[in-house]
């Protein structure tokens, strides 16, 4: 008898969020993680309103747990997402001039440690469903299911496969083909330097009020971001700059403080002060890669890919995790319907493909547009700092900055789920279940 399991490839934030959503909906699954345990690299992640809408749709209890874990700006600025300042003096404005404070009610800028969030998600799934040291190297589809092949020589069976395995996704490559122009993530012509400061130290560098507020400093060819993490005991700092090329085979190039100081040499005193306190041994340059070419479809047969595997994007709008969570919500909604129809057994391929098409109809246009605007956002943050900046220019930038995030943050995730299910049912032509689906939880 064919396996009924959904094979989730990748145990990062997207994969575990999908696993939780499936478990809550009583859909059988396994998570295959290439490493020996669930773990994330990186210091902090900032979560906006739509991320929390998605978490709530996945599991209301999870939403509450993450809210309790997250760090926010101090009162009365809890609903502020970012305070925008000029990162250098211009002809008409001083260094650090306050441009605006972007409001993102009700969450503001809520931050959590990446690995801390991942461990919370991992604690919400059945550990018996996790498989470690399983790097996918091949998959073979049949009319009944999918055979998975792993680097360690083992195989497993599944009803369908969802790739949640990041920007350099094995599933994406296996579905599209190695030579497909959309397979590989490409250098985004930008890179970032990162640091974490203890809060008491950061207060001495930028002042207490600035240290406890999430900030974006806009300057020539880039921006600097910092926000409180770990319950306000530390600050995560990122300095993003345009780069024409990436010549390393690695994502991270170590010991780059001298290059950082050169890259930001024309910035103002406040950013110079931040950089002066960064340690040479821990100042590394992180390349950014995204999927610049979009495939026609994000699935083939019984295999699909979502999250960063589908749409890795630059971090300049804080939407990478958000779009992965939205993907997990909508994918769980369509899979719930086909598993309900199959009464827990392996769904037929026609229904799996209809579920994937329903998902894609709703999600494709949104995540592709979020990716496009995230690439553009580096120029948006950087270009405001030109020397001849006027008061009228600042007012225009403030208006555009506030408008830029409205459609990102205020998306109706339950509406996405319902539309995807309706599209799936339309494709299947099953009039008898439409009324039931419209009234069912997703």
Automatic annotation (TrEMBL):
* Alphabetically ordered keywords of this record: FAD, Flavoprotein, Oxidoreductase
What biological processes does GO assign it? secondary metabolite biosynthetic process
The entry lists its GO molecular-function terms as: FAD binding; oxidoreductase activity
Source organism, top-level taxon:
Eukaryota
- FAD-binding domain segment(s): 5-340
Check the record and name the InterPro entries matching this protein.
FAD-bd (IPR002938), FAD/NAD-bd_sf (IPR036188), FAD_monoxygenase (IPR051104)
Key word Disulfide bond present in the record? no
**PANTHER family named among the record's database cross-references:** HYDROXYLASE, PUTATIVE (AFU_ORTHOLOGUE AFUA_3G01460)-RELATED, HYDROXYLASE, PUTATIVE (AFU_ORTHOLOGUE AFUA_8G06050)-RELATED
Q: What is this protein called?
A: FAD-binding domain-containing protein
Q: Which organism is it from?
A: Neohortaea acidophila
